[in-house]
Amino acid sequence: MTASTFLIELRKVSKRFGSVEAVRELSLAVPRGSLFALLGASGCGKTTVLRLVAGLEKPDSGEVKLNGRTVAAPGVWVPPEARRVGMVFQDYALFPHLTVAANIAFPLNGVSSTDRRVRVAELMALVGLDGLGDRYPHQLSGGQQQRVALARALAPRPEIVLLDEPFSNLDAGLRQSMRAEVRDILRRAGATTIFVTHDQEEALSLADIVAVMNAGAIEQVGAPAELFALPATRFVAEFLGGSFFLPAVVTARGVETEIGCAAQGTAWPPGMEVDMLVRPDDLTLRVEPGGAARIESGVFRGDVYIYQVRLASGRMVRCFGPHFERYAPGTAVTVELTPGHPLACFPRQKTESPSS
Amino acid sequence: MPAYVAAACWLIVFRRGGLLETVYRQWTGAPLGSLPLPDLYTLPGAALIISLCVFPYVYLPAASALRSISRSLEDAARVAGRSAWGTFREVTLPLILPAVTAGALLVGLYVLSDFGTVVLLQYRTFTVSIFRQFAGQTDRAAASILSLFLIGLTLPLVLGELRLNRRERRLNVGQTRRPPEVLRLNGWRWPALGAVTLVAGLALFFPFAVLSGQTLQGLLFPTEVDRIWSVGNEGVWVHGRNSVMVAGTAATLALALAFAPVYLDARFPSRWTRLLLAACKMPYALPGLIAGLSFVMFLNQWVNFLYGTVAALVLAFTFRLMPQALATNEAVLRSVPLSLEQAARTLGQTGWGAFWRVTLPVAAPGVIASWALAFIAAMKELPTAILLRPPGFDTLPVSIWSAADERVYTQAAPPALLLIMLTLIPLAWVYSRQTTPVRDLPE
Known about the structure:
Chain A is built from nine helices and 21 strands.
């Protein structure tokens, strides 16, 4: 049963390199047909997870199952060439001595030459590289190289595709357009995909399911919106999106902070002291001569101004202001908590409590 | 280790009436010629000895090419369905092939221009014929014609090497690094280790042991010592001093002369600087013997007063070292980013100030390393020294060669040992500083 719903399964997999424990008893299940993101800071072990799935690393313990078949477990080892996965490497790993067409045809071993030509032509059309088959990798732009790498990974029609930081080598503008395009191509190919990234925006915008990794373990798995709105741990909360914490107390009508009250997304009992996770978009900033808060500084982001505001308690918060008007430092303002949705709260951390 | 020294070592041990046979006969009392010995005066003999000396020309580029292959390429091949062997065959091998081929071409060039080894092994090659023609004074025209033929033979090798080098550079696309996978050899471990040890032993430890043994023997049996020291009373130490002096001066001169064209090309590149650089690199294609011969003829014809002086010898060495000095200087200067100099300019330095206070200090370790390499090359240079040394002014290679040529091998050993020691010190220094940008140059 699980074999049909989860295409990729890891059970309590560990992997250490010397004294570094890269992956710690990690379990993971990727549903068939999904686009699954492993999100984490560099060095958190996310690439190692990918390489464990591909068979480029052998787990020290635990079990890896692909499509219901055990490929790594104590006493069981299926080498990478027999796993039928496609992989796009961070540096694309295009063979510099082969043309684009030969690179794409590389995994098509044992396929008749006519079939191979047809498949290569098909893939070149799919990734939009028509007519570049005779070029060499170094004659291509970064975006083109990435398309070749993707086409090569998809060539043998793998059920599983792994992408290692696929967009990190592209410049910002190209990254945006390639994301949408790659997502489209993967959907059309019908592959189940794991991709690894350190860019939360990339993970949230691209994936169906996001797993946030920290120090070799998964902190939280869920749909992007769910993760963003209700992070399960402080780590996830801090990792996702310019957030900060406000000290608050749980009461009967909600959670009280110095700038207002909001519903909690958690279920802490009344009277408990908590830290509430707040993002700039949860706050409303108004210029008011009698306001207790003061603008400290402002940064223009294009669509909004982002202000550092000092509250009456001395605590700093970040707020958005309209892009057509700039408030000078020292301007008296009021800040109000207006989230419009329940906010995540975490038990108060002593080091985080206000000094006053 | 110069090939002619290795050849002398092999002859010491394996020739008829050599060390091995003498020992064998002392132990068994067998008559002369009863022990089957490999015949070194043949093509296989010469080929084996030279191969053992020149394998670094292939080994070093192949090793650095292997190191430069991004691991992800091999990983990609595995994921694409290739076994470990298939990956090696279809990805690794094609990627290091240009470097290996370039190394092989260098070997070809070396062998074509080699002189000392083939003379000792009495194997008649172009260089030997040219030398005999010239030394016998029989026919200078014949020597010149033979030389032209030899240059004709070396030219395709040089051009091929240049082309491969250019292609290799193109293949090196920037890639992220990941430490290579270490394979477990299991049962193959000992055979593999044995093969490596055998090559290293034959190429390095064997000649070294032979030379040390011979020198010791010379020291322990006074008759031999007398003969060594009786050569004008001064012997190896004087030859050693001569060698160091000439090689040091020539290396310094070559490096200084090579700096200007390289600097011009690195900082103000134009068609002319490239042409200048190419012209300066030309002597690279010339076998040492021919370069020496042309120098002799040139001096005889036009600047006779220099002929037979130490100055002429130093000049000829400098000329020989130019291509190498250019290549290493180029590598060093390219490693100093232009932006450093520009930063110095924006901080108020003049062009000269920036050069003196920034470029030169940054490049200094590399410059010293290239000086050491040039010095080593000059120390080993044989044909130029044979042709141009003033009477009575022997260098170490010359005294090794003349002793070995006369088959008085016991006399060849001490200068050979000294030569190896003197070149080993700067070499060890260069290799101990892995940060130097100088490209691995084979000994």
